[in-house]
Write a structure and sequence with these properties.
The protein is built from 1 helix and no strands. By secondary structure, the protein is an all-alpha fold. It has one domain. The N and C termini lie far apart (about 55 Å).
Length: about 40
Amino acid sequence: MIYLTKIFYKHKIIPLEIEMTSFTCQMILFLISMVRYIF
């Protein structure tokens, strides 16, 4: 049971990391576009 939970946790945390990095990239791109729009 604990082993299964560990596997599930590992699989759960990997997509979360990918999601977070893609979100960060989107935020950076958004900020760049905002700066370009303002200046």
